[in-house]
């Protein structure tokens, strides 16, 4: 039986179109000789959070139960997603750990994933705040729109006013600039402490849910996750989310294959195959994806 990669593309937040992800999925299927299933989940804002996460979870459960009818070995399923799709992919992996009635996921591939909404003042947020397709302010505004919140709260969330000190202390062991390797902190300037605003915190409760911020999952969950490929890009506000998750997985003895694209930026994979408009870094990411799939 062939292996399967379930690719969770990210229509709801990403600037790329569904057509661009179909092209990417076709290339992955051809180059890795695997079956690729793209989950067409319902979109925000018409469908409220967490509809998107639940659609991905339910689609994956259904396929795991019926994989053999498609000629797929249900024990060789890999979940993959880029950006917010990485959130859904690893969130699905975490949720499936609760199920003993279906085959275990073989591996997960997370391409410049969004993994937490607690701290928007990490080194990569500062370094790439105005870089490429996804600026820091635009990203937070997208998050607020996704959750149907007022974008006027963007500055408060960027400053960290939505997080009480008790929560910062609790999760400091997992989310903090000190956990980022020194070579990624050049010119980083720690921000001044933000004033906590209880009213903002109350409006942002979804941000602290595990399915929205998978990096907040307990070690008992993280330590049971499958082999993981994490792809980060140097010029990306989300770079450090990937670095922090890599550390958490490794600290919990999960096998991690890490690929860092020095000339990459957020969303670069969408430009794959566009001739003169393509970027070498997109091809590098594709090569890493295919290599990891073949190794599983």
TrEMBL record:
<feature type="domain" description="Alpha/beta hydrolase fold-3">
    <location>
        <begin position="15"/>
        <end position="150"/>
    </location>
</feature>
<dbReference type="InterPro" id="IPR029058">
    <property type="entry name" value="AB_hydrolase_fold"/>
</dbReference>
<dbReference type="GO" id="GO:0016787">
    <property type="term" value="F:hydrolase activity"/>
</dbReference>
<dbReference type="InterPro" id="IPR050300">
    <property type="entry name" value="GDXG_lipolytic_enzyme"/>
</dbReference>
<keyword id="KW-0378">Hydrolase</keyword>
<protein>
    <recommendedName>
        <fullName>Alpha/beta hydrolase fold-3 domain-containing protein</fullName>
    </recommendedName>
</protein>
<dbReference type="Pfam" id="PF07859">
    <property type="entry name" value="Abhydrolase_3"/>
</dbReference>
<feature type="domain" description="Alpha/beta hydrolase fold-3">
    <location>
        <begin position="208"/>
        <end position="268"/>
    </location>
</feature>
<dbReference type="InterPro" id="IPR013094">
    <property type="entry name" value="AB_hydrolase_3"/>
</dbReference>
């Amino acid at each position: 039986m062939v292996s399967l990669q379930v690719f969770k593309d990210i229509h709801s937040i990403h600037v790329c179109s569904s057509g661009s992800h179909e092209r990417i999925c076709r290339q992955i299927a051809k180059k890795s000789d695997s079956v690729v299933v793209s989950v067409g989940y319902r979109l925000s804002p018409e469908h409220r959070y967490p509809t998107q996460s639940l659609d991905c979870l339910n689609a994956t459960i259904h396929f795991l139960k019926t994989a053999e009818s498609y000629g797929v070995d249900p024990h060789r399923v890999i979940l993959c997603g880029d950006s917010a799709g990485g959130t859904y992919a690893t969130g699905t992996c975490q949720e499936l750990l609760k199920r003993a009635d279906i085959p275990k996921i073989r591996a997960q591939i997370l391409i410049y994933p969004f993994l937490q909404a607690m701290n928007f003042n990490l080194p990569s947020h500062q370094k790439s705040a105005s870089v490429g397709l996804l600026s820091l302010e635009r990203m937070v505004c997208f998050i607020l729109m996704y959750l149907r919140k007022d974008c006027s709260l963007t500055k408060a969330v960027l400053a960290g006013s939505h997080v009480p000190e008790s929560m910062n202390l609790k999760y400091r062991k997992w989310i903090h600039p000190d956990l980022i390797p020194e070579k990624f902190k050049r010119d980083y300037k720690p921000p001044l402490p933000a004033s906590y605003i209880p009213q903002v915190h109350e409006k942002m409760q979804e941000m602290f849910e595990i399915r929205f911020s998978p990096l907040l999952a307990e070690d008992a969950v993280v330590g049971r996750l499958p082999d993981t490929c994490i792809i980060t890009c140097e010029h990306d506000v989300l770079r450090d989310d990937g670095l922090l998750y890599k550390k958490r997985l490794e600290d919990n003895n999960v096998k991690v294959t890490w690929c860092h694209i020095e000339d990459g930026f957020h969303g670069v994979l969408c430009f794959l195959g566009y001739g003169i408009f393509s970027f070498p870094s997109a091809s590098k990411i594709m090569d890493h994806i295919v290599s990891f799939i073949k190794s599983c």
